[in-house]
Structure formats: structure tokens, C-alpha cells
Amino acid sequence: MSSALLGATALELAVLAGHLVAYPFGLTPERPPPPGPTPRPAGTGADHTDGGGAAPRPATGHPATALPVAAAAAPPVVLLHGFIDNRSVFVVLRRALTRHGHRHLESLNYSPLTRDIRTAAELLGRHVEEICVRTGHSRVDVVGHSLGGLIARYYVQRLGGDRRVRTLVTLGTPHGGTAVAPGAGIHPIVRQMRGGSSVIEELRTPAPGCRTRFVSFWSELDQVMVPVETACVDHPDLDAVNVRVTGVGHLALPVHPTVAAAIREALEAPEAEEGTATAAGPRTGATSAA
Hints:
This protein has 8 helices and 7 strands, in the order αβαβαβαβααββααβ.
């Protein structure tokens, strides 16, 4: 065993131990954050806010009406966990994003009894719509770990979610299907993560005009992704950048500080850059995070 793999394995075990402690605290659904004050319509004077960029308050008696927000306001971030996990996996990442000024963060728990990625993607879609109504934003960013990234991609690519998702960041997600899927012969949703599954084949179909920007983090030491390159987005119609991470295993991707910094950069990419890439056509590329 190489020294790099040995170090990554030790880190994986440490992350697993910490996550087992935090896991019970993430079993309950997250309460939506309280809405911020409602901004005054343009031209009526200064907006009334709490000084911290709070989201606008939905109009009383009209819960289905989204309020407009300033164009420069960053969209909410939705965090989506992996298989047999919960929102506690994002405790460290969430703290890092909050510490660096990241605004509206929400986690979605889906049941481990969910038997189909398509069903989970529909749940994500309803959650995103509710967030948009509640915050007044027309789009969100999504960060998905492992299976969570695949669920989010299905929502974006097959259920029209590109209308709502600006940037999708995936961490160790089997975009091309993995040959090592624990319990693949037992749980239907895990079988769908294997190469050649109906879900993976659906994601290979054309997706012209997809408006979501993809940033996929993959590691050469990820023992769950076989081959490791399956965690890369490889689709001619998608605007995608694949980021190679060194010295990090599958479980450590959501908690590693280098990855967290790179995720912040991806979420803070200026709209002008995104728009330029979209206008020029799908963008593909690769980079690395040491």
C-alpha cells in the first residue's frame, strides 16, 4: 500500500468515526431558516433589511408567490447527502461556507428507504421550488455528495431542473456508474449507481441547452468510484469542469478544507463568466485541487 493511500485510508477512518458521532443529530429534517424582512419595491425608498443580506420575507397570505430579489444576491445553496447518510455529513462544509459569508444554506434529507433515484430527484425538485418561493430567488446552487450528486444531476438533466439550478457541485458522484456499489444486489437505488443501469443510460442521452454549470470533484484515491474517472462529468452537451483532488478518499471529500475552499470558488464564480461560457456553448475541462 502506497504512503498516499495509507494516509487517505487513515483519514477516511477518522472521518468515519467523527461522522458516526454526528450522525444521530442529522436524522431529523432541517427547519427552514426564518425569512428576512421584505424589501420595499424599487423607487419607494431604501430597502429594509437587517444589514446582513437577509432573504426577503414572503408576502403574507401569498405563500406561492416568489418575491423578486436583487440581481447581485447570491442564490441559496442546497446540500444533498449520499446513500444511507443524512445532513450531518455537511457539518464541516456548512461551517466553512458560513464563515466565508455564505448566505442561505439548506440541507435535504431523503429517506434511506427511497428505492428510485427518479423519485428522490422529484423530491429535490419540490424542495427547490419551495426554497425559491420562500426566498424570492429564481435559482439555487446544489452541492451533492456521492449518490446525492447523481440525484441532483437527474433532476437537472431529466426533470427540467436546469431552470432552477445555476451551479451543481458533485463530490465523488458516480456519473458514469461505479463497479463498486455496496449492497448493489440488495438495494434498488444502489443498483442504479452501477454502470449500465437505466438511470446512468438516461444521463448519457442528449441534453441540448442545459443551463446548469457542473463542477465535479473526483479523487484518484476514492475507493468507492471504480474506475475513479467515473466521478467525472463526461457529456458533450453539459458545461462541466472536473476537479481532481489528491490525497483524499470518498468520505473525506465533504470535510476536507482544500475541497471546501474549491467549492466556495465554484459557488462564487461571477455570473458574467458563467453567461459567457453558456453563450459560447458547453464548456468542458479539468483542473486540480491539491
